[in-house]
Amino acid sequence: MKTRITELFGIEHPIIQGGMHYVAFAELAAAVSNAGGLGIITALTQKSPEDLAREIERCRQMTDKPFGVNVTFLPTVMAPDYPGYIRAIIDGGVRIVETAGRNPQEHLPALKDAGVKVIHKCTSVRHALKAEKIGCDAVSVDGFECGGHPGEDDIPNMILLPRAAEELQIPFVASGGMADARSLVASLALGAEGINMGTRFIATREAPVHEKVKQAILAASELDTRLVMRPLRNTERVLKNAAVERLLEKEATLGKNLQFEDIIEEVAGVYPKVMTEGEVDAGAWSCGMVAGLIHDIPTCKELLDRIMSEAEAIIQARLTGLLAHRKENAI
Ligand SMILES: Cc1cc2nc3c(=O)[nH]c(=O)nc-3n(C[C@H](O)[C@H](O)[C@H](O)COP(=O)(O)O)c2cc1C
Question: Which residue among 249, 260, 268, 294 has its CA within the 20 to 30 Å range from the CA of 235?
């Protein structure tokens, strides 16, 4: 399938694996890229720019296809060494960057000068337009359904994607709630040029996370996520568990007085415990509503091949079939 996104990134299928803390290591990124999609390594999971440089090199050993690096600009006082991470990306010869979080403007000149294509992930049309204005090549439009940070507007993709299509000139992919061929075809119909998936890629054979995490996603339904940290305007969609229930109780009790320190136990340092050790109840970890559509643990290649062949069947058999009577009438 050829879309503006496959052309922009030089990939076979219009399917991107979004950056995921403690999930998107070289193993997953390489597997997705080898399967014809765009795999992405998460920069900040690497403790330093030097570690990121090594991770990029590891990925290059596993694939000769294009892959990208996610750089998430966090709302923190003590900022990570962003210029160092950007330098590691450029020096490592990576040609694609997924930015997320705050506005990436100050880092764009360095990336653009090095010929890096930038796709910015955002949760609103106004932020997507801003990304277009500052020179991003594409955007990933992340709807309210998404695992991770859906922003504060709560607009689901059925509205957000066609709104983005109305306003944007640059290509965009649909992110949040994407799992299969139906997601891809629907997204194309709504104006997107492909899809970005997070949660679905955790439940793949190559995702280098503990088996208990994959089983937790399989066991979850679309009813099993919760929104946390809304009072801090840092909303995150996570899988419900005992720690999340505790966190929500604190939010309800403390109301407007809630401080980050009050919930530190449930959110800080959780990812290595969950993803590496398999302590799935250790705290709040991102997961999308799309868990309800995830019923197996395929390889990335099986997943992408299935999405592409079923998408073709939906378009050719089901959708074109709906118009068959027109042709018959015309004969
Ligand atoms: C466990 C997990 C960790 C994530 N970590 C990040 C991250 O560090 N940076 C980022 O930009 N997005 C992160 N995301 C968001 C994904 O890249 C993607 O946008 C999102 O999962 C899409 O929604 P979906 O889960 O419904 O597919 C994370 C998502 C999950 C599920």
Answer: 294
Q: How far is the CA of 88 from the centre of ligand 1 (A)?
A: 22
Q: Does domain 4-208 have CATH number 3.20.20.70?
A: yes
Cα four-point dihedral sign 215, 216, 217, 218: positive
Residue 67 has which token pair?
């892959």
**Cβ–Cβ under 8 Å, residues 138 and 5:** yes
**Structure pTM?**
0.97
Backbone angles phi, psi at 281, to 5 degrees: -100, 10
Q: 79-114 burial string, b = 16+ CB within 10 Å, else e?
A: ebebeebbbbbbebebbbbbbbbeebeebbeebeeb
236 has pLDDT over 70? yes
Give the dihedral sign, CA 283/17/193/71: positive
End-to-end CA distance of the chain: 30
Paired with 17 in beta bridges are: 197
Residue of 14, 54, 55 lying closest to 32 (CA atoms): 14
Host H or E run for residue 6: helix 4-9
Query: Does 309 have pLDDT greater than 70?
Result: yes
Q: Which of 28, 88, 19, 29 is nearest to 54 (CA)?
A: 88
Quick one: which atom of ligand 1 is closest to the CA of 285?
1
Contact 290, 145 (CB under 8 A): yes
Of 86, 30, 96, nearest to 60 (Cα)? 30
* Secondary structure class of 259 (helix, strand, coil): coil
Residues with Cβ within 8 Å of residue 17, at least 6 apart in sequence: 24, 28, 29, 32, 37, 38, 39, 40, 196, 197, 198, 201, 300
Domain-wise residue ranges, the chain: 4-208, 212-276
CB-based contact 185:274 (threshold 8 Å): no
Residue at 156: amino acid letter = P
Q: Which of 69, 146, 294 to mutate to test the pocket of ligand 1 (most atoms within 8 A of CB)?
A: 146
Give the percent of the chain with pLDDT over 90: 95
Residue 8 vs residues 25, 100, 211, 232, 331: alpha-carbon distances, Å: 23, 19, 35, 37, 40
